[in-house]
Amino acid sequence: MSNADLQGKRPLSPHLQIYKPILTMVMSILHRITGAALYFGTILLAWWLIAAAAGPSYFNFVNDIYGSIIGRLILFGFTWALVHHMLGGLRHFIWDMGAGFGREARELLAKATIIGSVCLTIVLWIIGFAVS
Questions:
Q1: 83 in Cβ contact with 115 (< 8 Å)
Q2: Among 19, 34, 86, 116, which is most exposed with the fewest C-beta within 10 angstroms?
Q3: Residue stretches of the annotated binding site for heme
Q4: Which InterPro entries has this protein been placed in (predicted)?
């Protein structure tokens, strides 16, 4: 501690303006954002379950809200956040196993997470509309 530079000549920590955004950094930020969005989506799911337990009239009211264009957009976003966060978790699991640390592998996993989450979300919604 006696070697501490008290004159203020220490280098400053770089800010986000200095860092060049790379795909893996953006994916890390998206993983955190989707994780937070899942809290909101869980509240929507709980509201739907509570409405189902409350009775048919309130359940129909909530279904009408979720069936509106805005409701479907929100549910689509929740589905994407869920799938994207799951695929991001699998990417982290691969890293936890000690693989995928090379530059090409990191980029490939990040791109696969983005493309996979969009494609899987669309496929899930197509299946959902086909079944209903």
A1: no
A2: 19
A3: 85
A4: SQR/QFR_C/D, Succ_DH_cyt_bsu_CS, Succ_DH_cytb556, SuccDH_FuR_B_TM-su
pLDDT in tens, the chain (132 residues): 555 555 666 666 666 667 788 899 999 999 999 999 999 999 999 999 999 999 999 999 999 999 999 999 999 999 999 999 999 999 999 999 999 999 999 999 999 999 999 999 999 999 999 998
* Model confidence, pTM: 0.83
| Strand, helix or coil for residue 21 | coil
- For residue 109, what is the domain's CATH number? 1.20.1300.10
Residue 97 has phi, psi (to 5 degrees) of -80, -5
| Closest alpha carbon to 90 in 70, 68, 112, 107 | 112
Q: Specify binding-site residues.
A: 85
